Amino acid sequence: MILHNLEPWHFAVAGAGIAAITLTLQAVGNRALGVSTGLEEICSLGSKAPYFGRAELREHWRLVLFAGLICGGVLSSVTSGSWQWTWDAGLLDTRLHLDHASKIAWFVVGGLFTGVGTRLAGGCTSGHGIYGMARMQPGSIASVLAFMASGILTANLLWRVIAP
Questions:
Q1: What whole-number distance in Å separates Cα of residue 98 and Cα of residue 109?
Q2: Are 121 and 146 in contact (CB under 8 A)?
């Protein structure tokens, strides 16, 4: 239950919304939906590095997508009436009992792995999983299979072997 005991919408509503956005981007602007390129676009605003000088990063339409993601998350958490700052990391705390510095290091290393994997795969899970899979692109199918396999392997290693 969220938003003061309102029933959550069915997951298919979100799926239909994502499909509508993806199809509209493709049909109207021949654009691909993906978050990692949006992050690169944000970085391009403050960097003169040649990597961030690519033409696709000068369009800035993804900045609206990023703003919507951030505003939607903030709006959802604030209107739920239960938002609060916390260091609680759920099962990570229960199993590994990490202090604050260790949690920060854990998340930074995880973020670095995610960033490197995103660049190696030529895009993020949203780009490959939503846009690339919808277009049946072989590279996206392979990337999503690799994302899923590494996630399953990591989760099982963490919760069954490292911290049972």
A1: 15
A2: yes
The answer on pLDDT for 109 being more than 90 is: yes
- 3-state secondary structure at position 11: helix
Looking at per-residue confidence, does 46 or 34 come out higher?
46
Domain ranges of the chain: 1-85, 86-164
Residue (of 69, 100, 68) closest to 85 by Cα position: 100
DSSP for 96-153, written as a single string:
H---HHHHHHHHHHHHHHHHHHHHHHTS-HHIIIIIIHHTT-HHHHHHHHHHHHHHHH
Q: What is the DSSP letter of 54?
A: -
Instruction: Please tell me the pTM assigned to this model.
Output: 0.67
Contact criterion met (CB below 8 Å) for 31 and 25: yes
Residue type, 8: P
Q: Given the structure tokens 């033409």, which residue do they identify? A: 55
| Torsion angle (degrees, nearest 10) of CA 103, 109, 111, 116 | -170
- What phi, psi does 123 have (nearest 5°)? 155, 170
Please, what's the largest Cα pairwise distance for the chain?
A: 50
